Amino acid sequence: MLTRQTPSDWRRGYALHRRRTRLDSYGETVRYYDMETPDLEVADGEADGICWQEARAWQTGGKLSGGSAVEPQGETADNVVQGAYFGALELYPFDRFVIDGQVYELRTVQQWLGYRLLQLQRLF
After folding, report:
1. Which of 103, 108, 74, 70 lies closest to 91 in space, CA to CA?
2. DSSP state of 9
């Protein structure tokens, strides 16, 4: 569920890296990411940017630990972030996003009317 709508100019940019497959030395198919060359780059303020939301869970507490928070100095994102995506690009779980130099992995994509809600987890 969309908890807040931000203007397009505030949407955050990212570099998208899709999961690929190749053969290893034994001839087995393995997955990998080409982290040097992104499949797509979106700048801050573009229409395909991500509109960050407060990370929430379907629990009685409602909040995910380590989620984004609004602090006096501005919004901060920690281990788990959630955002609304209004673009038409097809996104898949385990796609990787580089946002502000941090690597996040897409965990879930929820389809809502007019947008998709993405939940990403930061990789260490």
Report:
1. 108
2. G
Nearest to 7 by CA among 55, 45, 64: 45
Contact call for residues 45 and 20 (beta carbons, < 8 A) = no
Q: What is the DSSP letter of 67?
A: -
Model confidence over 44-81: pLDDT tens digits?
888 888 888 766 554 445 454 555 555 555 555 558 88
Q: How many residues does the chain have?
A: 124
Task: Name the pTM for this structure.
Answer: 0.75
